[in-house]
């Protein structure tokens, strides 16, 4: 009987320890609506932006390097050493997202451009980013937001980055993301993706019979983003319909302003939180390995290791010489009969 009680006690202790152990940032978080929100079940969800990169360039850019709408830098999360070495630059965004709150054609900000050199430089960098197909990387609830589309082989593909825009060549040939919409066909034009449709799928925990804790809120399972180019007439005349006209920017022209908008749609799903990464791992065609960042990190590590090794060798060499000198001095001081006795 004592043995059985001991086994039960050991099982309870192990269960308690396992329940108390989790990797930082990987524990499930329940979100609640504003009316019932509390510290253990928040309502507001911060959308984080990361650096932009491109397969056509080895140089990444921070999010605020481009003239996008930016949030407060004071709420930036603390990055670990690996994120810093690999060039991650995670910053909070100005997108306002609350649990289960639908948003339709919400104004984010308006960027105006005049004839001063700084504005021309900002527009030049935007055009360069669109031409080289630079990709956004957004994060919500410690999970990357995915961009899903049908490729030319009629396959559904999801990637963890989405383009900031696309370019149509002077002979009318669409490049990169411009091939996904037949309306992006104006020659020698850039199409800035100034609107995003965000689809968030969540599991309703208030009706989950398998949930042993308090039945409140929900857990985010999937986040998908669909970027679009929309030509808004003014801030008070927003049109985010599917049939809205795209926003072409000619190479020899400069727009007066760019209006950024977004929409958020919430949907329920029966997928469990533990399986929420499956659709990303199954649909991503291949890993986008940043060889330049990896090589740069390896060079830095080897250089620092070489410096430390040289310092250690020089220190040990001096110590060995000092010890040999002490031995020689002792040999000279001691009588010969004591040395050979």
Automatic annotation (TrEMBL):
A single BP term in Gene Ontology: protein localization to membrane
Entries under Pfam families matching the protein: EMP70 (PF02990)
GO cellular component: membrane
Superkingdom of the organism of origin: Eukaryota
Subcellular location, record wording: Membrane
Record keywords, A-Z: Membrane, Signal, Transmembrane, Transmembrane helix
Transmembrane is among the record's keywords: yes
Predominant location category: membrane
Topology class, membrane: Multi-pass membrane protein
Membrane spanning stretches: 291-313
The keyword Transmembrane is annotated on this UniProt entry: yes
Assigned protein family: Belongs to the nonaspanin (TM9SF) (TC 9.A.2) family.
Protein name: Transmembrane 9 superfamily member
Record organism: Wuchereria bancrofti
